């Protein structure tokens, strides 16, 4: 089956700011099909200077609090990188990638449909590990 993704229009290199990047990540995350009981917050982590670009690292932390357990036992993080090129025209959109906590697979928002199961798997694995310890 073909995956349908809802894309957002990423800002251009010359219009990029750290806060604009965080807002656009929030906008992208809002298009993901996750149950309404999932809550998340996002934060800027750091800036990375490379030869041909600058990378801005963000984290979106997910949890599913309940009435019985308002403080969740575990959370799942999704790490975003927004890359602003130093050599491409500044009028082009920034490049955006994300990875899941405990995974090295790099996803592009426009090429990948996010799956709620990924968050559930991270949290379930953490809880299993905590119970074993």
Can you describe what's shown?
The protein is α+β, with helices and mostly antiparallel strands and 133 residues long. It has one domain (13-132). It contains two helices and four strands; from the N terminus they run H-E-E-E-E-H. It has helices at 18-29, 116-132, and strands at residues 39-49, 53-63, 76-85, 95-100. A four-stranded antiparallel β-sheet has the order 1-2-3-4. A hairpin with a 3-residue loop joins strand 1 (39-49) and strand 2 (53-63). The protein starts with 17 loop residues before the first helix and ends with a helix. Keywords: Kinase, Transferase. GO terms for molecular function: kinase activity; protein kinase A regulatory subunit binding. One of its GO terms (cellular component) is cAMP-dependent protein kinase complex. This is A-kinase anchor protein 14.
- Based on Cα principal axes, name the global outline: elongated
Gyration radius, rounded: 16 Å
β-sheet strand percentage = 25-35%
Summarize model confidence as the mean pLDDT.
92
Distance between the termini: 40 Å
Helix percent reads: 10-25%
- Could you say which structural class the secondary elements and strand pairing correspond to? alpha+beta
Strand arrangement across the biggest beta sheet: 1-2-3-4
pLDDT under 50 segments (min length 5)?
1-5
Number of helices: 2
Order of helices and strands: HEEEEH
Instruction: Count the domains.
Output: 1
Query: How does the major sheet shape up?
Result: 4 strands, antiparallel
Organism: Opisthocomus hoazin
Pfam family, one: AKAP28
Protein name: A-kinase anchor protein 14
GO molecular function: kinase activity; protein kinase A regulatory subunit binding
């Amino acid at each position: 089956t073909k995956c349908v993704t809802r894309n957002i229009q990423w800002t251009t290199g010359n219009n990029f700011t750290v806060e604009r990047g965080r807002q656009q990540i929030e906008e992208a995350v809002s298009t993901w099909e996750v149950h309404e009981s999932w809550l998340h917050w996002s934060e800027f982590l750091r800036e990375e200077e490379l030869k041909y670009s600058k990378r801005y690292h963000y984290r979106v932390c997910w949890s599913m609090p309940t009435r019985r357990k308002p403080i969740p036992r575990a959370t799942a993080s999704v790490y975003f990188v927004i890359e602003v090129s130093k050599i491409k025209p500044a009028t082009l959109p920034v490049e955006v990638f994300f990875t899941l906590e405990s995974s090295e697979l790099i996803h592009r928002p426009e090429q990948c449909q996010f799956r709620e199961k990924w968050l559930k798997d991270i949290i379930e694995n953490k809880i299993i590990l905590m119970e074993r310890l």
